[in-house]
Amino acid sequence: MSTAAVSRPVTAYPAGRPPSLWWAAAGWVAVPFVAAALGHDRFASTTLAAAAVQGLFAVSWVLLAVSGQPSLGHALPYGAGAYAAAFVARRAGLHAGDLGGLMPVVLTVAAAIAGGCFGALQGRLTRRLAPAFLAVVTLAMVEAGRTLATMWMAPVLRGGADADASIPIVPFPSDDRAAAWITAAAFGAGVLLVTALVRSRTGVALRAAAGGERAAEALGFDAPRLRLFAFVAAGTIAGTAGALAAQLSGHVSPLMLSWQTSLFAPAAALIGGAATVAGPAAAGYAGAAVAQFLDVPSPLQLLVLAAVLVAAGLRDPQHLFGPAFSWNPRPRNGP
Amino acid sequence: MMDTPDRFGPLLRLDGVRIRADGARPAREFTIDIAPGEALGVLGPRGSGKTALLDVVSGFLRPERGRIALCGEDITGWAARRIARAGVARSFQTPPFLDGTMIDDAVAAAAIGRGLSARRARDAVRLGLAITGLEPTRYRTGAALGPAEQRLLTLARVAAAAPLLALLDEPLAGLAPEAAGLVVATVRRLREIGITLIVTAHDAASLRVVCSRAALMRDGRLAEAGRPAGAPDA
């Protein structure tokens, strides 16, 4: 068939391939390394390390955005990773320098596994839910997790029932500059991994699953399994971020399972653009760096995150998370 | 993936396929053969069971009894995704929500879902975009498309899936005449490249230029209505 004979569509748009995701991703892989090289004092190194960890957490949420799952409970795998690291360190009686310096790696792997498991739990329980219900259920799950962490985990892990629910964990690493470099590497690896996934055939399938379960099944995809995969992958990365955050601060607390932590990732996606990888990574990294640099109190941070969500909701009431979410087509105007 | 259809046998055979009555809707029964390369138009008023026919063939409805065979293989009771991978493409009355998805990716999803290799998928996407005239929009997102282009996008996905059989549910519903003309021309091109079609519609006029054969849904049964006046050759 001759393509010349093909009719033009009703509306014509300029052709042109958009800029590759890889360039933007590569840029955001470089930024933390440059910043780590420039930051010489302890305060700068700590700030940059915290920013890289939060950037990693934010970028993990992109996989949920791509698959059309606006989870508001992403702090669950993040906190689960942190608690898993603390649990393993305590049960194994590990101290700084144990396992030939590989202890942080062991703890981070344990955290990634725990994050993946809790992501799987969230995905399993929400696999048939429409986005709005999924958001509510995941938020309820993270609140349940925070309550359990406050009521149960602290006494179990600390061997007592004291009021302080935070649990100490061996700090990692003791050198602040090394921490900035290692977290920059983790952030960079996370951005590249998520970019590779989003650009792969699996990424195309995840976006098809976001378009609706029947439509995805009619294309030959197992939509519930794809959504579960997105939760597991996002949870694994978030769990890794949680372990790094815990080892940087030297303790694990139920705050890691708070609303504030949960809302951070979608807010970063809203600011940076839910359909991109570099956008949420940049917003998460910069937002956390500013909060750390200015020492913004937690209630004020929560207020800012809530304001971002409200502003996004007012801008587009039917699609709070922009184009990435809706399993229910909206009516269109025009011919 | 299923073999190429036997030249002398039906591509699709529905043999006494019965769908259980559901609430206000009566039971439906379908018996029909579709030959390779044929375009069957299914007419009937809203609620007559046209979509139920497509649902049962594509695996979204499980028949109470009867047998569905594709290229001679019994596909009764198969899951929808397995039937899709076997070569049955499906479009819905309401196009899927693809506002945040690049057109190129949306079309590629059909080829990937069918299980095509990377190289064949690239060719399939090129074909789908060429057939529908959506090439200039390939790097835009679904949000940039109007209603007619949304329909064309679903047809581009059908073409990219390289199916043996395509089930098109009311592809012209709600479209203005100019837009409907574009969609009709695209459906004809699907047939020209050898895809067997089942197309549903409310009125015969819209199917006349597309379908080689028509059937009428009446009282929950499929009745042959012959060849529409002005229909193209089978």
Features:
heterodimer; A: 335 residues; mainly alpha; ABC transporter involved in vitamin B12 uptake, BtuC; 13 helices; globular; disordered N terminus; B: 234 residues; alpha/beta; Rossmann fold; four-stranded antiparallel sheet; 10 strands; 33% helix
What does this structure look like?
The complex is a heterodimer of chains A (335) and B (234). Chain A is an all-alpha fold and 335 residues long. Chain A has a single domain, classed as Orthogonal Bundle (ABC transporter involved in vitamin B12 uptake, BtuC). Chain A contains 13 helices and 2 strands. Chain A has helices spanning 21-38, 42-60, 62-66, 75-91, 103-126, 131-158, 176-199, 201-210, 213-218, 223-249, 259-272, 278-294, 298-315, and strands at residues 167-168, 251-252. A two-stranded antiparallel sheet of chain A has the order 1-2. In chain A, helix 1 packs parallel to helix 12 and helix 5 (103-126) packs antiparallel against helix 10. Chain B is of the alpha/beta class and 234 residues long. Chain B has one domain (12-226): 3-Layer(aba) Sandwich (Rossmann fold), CATH 3.40.50. In chain B, 33% of the residues lie in helices and 23% in strands. In chain B, the strands form 2 sheets. Chain B has a 6-stranded mixed β-sheet, with helices on both faces. A 4-stranded antiparallel β-sheet of chain B has the order 2-1-4-5, with helices on one face. In chain B, helix 3 packs across helix 4 (118-132), helix 4 packs antiparallel against helix 5 and helix 5 (147-160) runs parallel beside helix 6. Chain B is globular. At the A-B interface, helix 8 and helix 9 of A face helix 2, helix 3, helix 4, helix 5 and helix 6 of B.
